[in-house]
């Protein structure tokens, strides 16, 4: 309870404070009242009806005091006349107050949709309140809000739940009238309901477990964008790899980050400029990846071929380059030409790129003796994803290609890819049959004998391969969990 002001002025250091001027005034008032009372009493008392008038006056004063006390106790807690505790809706709108949100029954009467919206407001008091008021008038619920301070103004990023009948154009118009500029809006889904710190921690965990997750983590962190990895360049070449500073560079809709291996990671989002906050988050993910160094999950699966041979499917990286070169040397020229679409003598020079976790994921198939007989690649190609297969001649037509393709598609679905494409020759009936075996919608493009098949993954079930996501203390020997995975066998049909 807040103390009364008079109580504060009357006490100092816990002791009452006396003022002699106040005492003199009170004494003077007392003497004056006594003198006036004596004069009135003498005037009335010496009259013929003086005593009766004094008694009647006293009775009237007592009755008045009693009535006033009764009335005060009866109406002391009643509201002021005419105040019902509620204001008309029109009065609230005219006063600039937010309109109450709809009741439960009103909200249940219609369906709602989720929107992600970003807009820039002035960095001054009341600007965000005006924006929230405009959203409330359209019965839009704000589920989350992130702020990105800029040199001039603030970028506010919202996750909204709005009535289904409210169009995106109407929502953007309302925000614009409330002072928002540069408004961007798109449909959201249930995955966006995760708050920003939780999402960032999850992406950091995925990046820590697998170096191939870095491009995917950046894409999920920054929304729809194009990510490219440029290799390191030699001194004096003048390319971006030499001009990008260690701390990176932010240029409106493009950010450049120094890759851990010395190259450059470029992230481009033409429709929406990056904010300094987004740049700092992306740079933190890249720094985490650089500190952890090369790494991939080391668990693996053992499969049984129809004829009874056991093969192992595992993740591969640049440490498998020599074994992959040996496999390619055992492949025929026709097999290599269908895979690389060029001179087969230069096939080996692609392996460092293909097996690097920076550019995608690679699955290797090896025999019981440890010899690699098949490779499957899932490659990040900007904002698209490519699938490529190579199976040694002696091991073709045994279901290995279909097994690799199915696992790579599952990885693509898990990574949130919308589609995957494969480039091969029109005469490669094995690859065509494997793509058709996915039971997914396929698009075909043929030009001068080159066939591009694109599989749409919207209808593909998300069946992640847990054996490739097991954690391990380091990139050395398999852990006990990995050894347990080695005992899990499955027969290929």
* Number of DSSP-assigned strands: 19
Q: Give the CATH level 1 class of the largest domain.
A: Alpha Beta
Unreliable stretches (pLDDT < 50, length at least 5) are 1-17, 75-108, 234-242, 463-488
Which range best describes the helical content: under 10%, 10-25%, 25-40%, 40-55%, 55-70% or over 70%?
Answer: 25-40%
SS class: alpha+beta
- The total count of helices amounts to 17
Strand content: 15-25%
Tell me, briefly, the overall form: rod-shaped
Amino-to-carboxy terminus distance = 79 Å
Neighbour order of strands in the largest sheet: 15-14-13-12-11-19
User: In this structure, how is the largest beta sheet organized?
Assistant: 6 strands, mixed
**Oligomer kind:** single chain
According to CATH, the fold-level topology of the largest domain is Aminopeptidase
CATH superfamily caption of the largest domain = Gcn5-related N-acetyltransferase (GNAT)
Summed up, the domain count is 3
Summed over residues and divided by their number, the pLDDT gives a mean of 75
Question: What does this protein structure show overall?
Answer:
With 493 residues, the protein is of the alpha+beta class. It has three domains: 110-192, Alpha-Beta Plaits (2-Layer Sandwich); 196-292, no CATH class; 300-491, Gcn5-related N-acetyltransferase (GNAT) (Aminopeptidase, 3-Layer(aba) Sandwich). It has helices at 5-10, 20-45, 50-75, 89-94, 104-108, 127-137, 168-177, 196-209, 214-222, 240-243, 276-292, 321-330, 333-340, 351-354, 400-414, 429-436, 480-486, and strands at residues 11-12, 15-16, 112-121, 141-149, 154-163, 181-187, 226-230, 249-251, 254-258, 264-268, 300-304, 310-316, 360-366, 372-381, 384-391, 419-425, 442-447, 450-456, 489-491. It has a six-stranded mixed beta sheet, with helices on both faces. A hairpin with a 2-residue loop joins strand 14 (372-381) and strand 15 (384-391). The longest helix is centred in the N-terminal third of the chain and has 26 residues, at 20-45. It is rod-shaped and about 145 Å long. It starts with a helix and ends with a strand. The model is unreliable at 1-17, 75-108, 234-242 and 463-488 (pLDDT under 50).
């Amino acid at each position: 309870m807040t103390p009364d002001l008079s109580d504060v002025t009357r006490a100092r250091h816990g002791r009452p404070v006396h003022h002699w001027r106040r005492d003199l005034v009170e004494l003077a008032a007392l003497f004056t009242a006594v003198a006036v009372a004596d004069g009135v009493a003498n005037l009335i008392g010496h009259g013929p009806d003086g005593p009766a008038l004094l008694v009647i006056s006293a009775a009237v004063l007592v009755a008045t005091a009693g009535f006033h006390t009764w009335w005060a106790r009866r109406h002391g807690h009643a509201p002021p006349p005419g105040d019902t505790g509620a204001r008309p809706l029109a009065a609230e709108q005219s006063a600039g107050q937010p309109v109450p949100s709809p009741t439960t029954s009103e909200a249940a009467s219609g369906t709602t949709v989720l929107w992600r919206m970003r807009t820039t407001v002035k960095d001054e008091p009341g600007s965000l309140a005006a924006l929230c008021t405009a959203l409330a008038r359209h019965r839009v619920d704000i589920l989350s809000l992130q702020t990105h301070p800029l040199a001039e103004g603030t970028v506010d990023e919202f996750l909204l739940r709005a009535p289904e009948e409210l169009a995106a154009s109407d929502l953007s118009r309302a925000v614009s009238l409330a002072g928002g500029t540069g408004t961007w809006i798109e449909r959201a889904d249930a995955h966006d309901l995760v708050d920003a710190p939780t999402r960032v921690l999850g992406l950091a965990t995925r990046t820590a477990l697998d170096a191939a997750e870095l491009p995917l983590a950046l894409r999920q962190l920054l929304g729809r964008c194009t990510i490219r990895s440029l290799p390191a360049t030699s001194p004096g070449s003048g390319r971006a790899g030499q001009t990008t500073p260690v701390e990176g560079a932010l240029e409106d809709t493009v950010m450049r980050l120094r890759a851990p291996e010395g190259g450059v990671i470029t992230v481009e989002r033409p429709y929406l400029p990056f904010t300094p906050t987004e740049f700092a988050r992306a740079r933190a993910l890249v720094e985490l990846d650089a500190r952890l160094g090369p790494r991939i999950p080391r668990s693996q699966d053992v499969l049984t071929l129809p004829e009874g041979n056991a093969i192992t499917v595992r993740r591969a990286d640049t440490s498998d380059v020599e074994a992959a070169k040996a496999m390619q040397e055992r492949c025929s020229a026709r097999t290599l030409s269908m895979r690389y679409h060029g001179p087969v003598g230069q096939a080996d020079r692609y392996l460092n790129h293909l097996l690097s976790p920076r550019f995608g994921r690679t699955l290797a198939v090896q025999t019981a003796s440890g010899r690699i007989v098949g490779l499957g690649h899932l490659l990040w190609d900007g904002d698209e994803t490519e699938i490529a297969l190579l199976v040694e001649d002696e091991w073709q037509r045994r279901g290995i290609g279909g097994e690799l393709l199915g696992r790579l598609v599952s990885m693509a679905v898990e990574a949130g890819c919308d589609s995957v494409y494969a480039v091969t020759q029109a005469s490669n009936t094995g690859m065509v049959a494997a793509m058709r075996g996915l039971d997914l919608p396929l698009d075909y493009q043929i030009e001068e004998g080159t066939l591009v098949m694109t599989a749409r993954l919207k209808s593909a079930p998300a069946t992640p391969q847990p054996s490739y996501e097991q954690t391990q203390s380091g990139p050395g020997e398999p852990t006990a969990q990995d050894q347990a995975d080695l005992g899990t066998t499955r027969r290929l049909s």
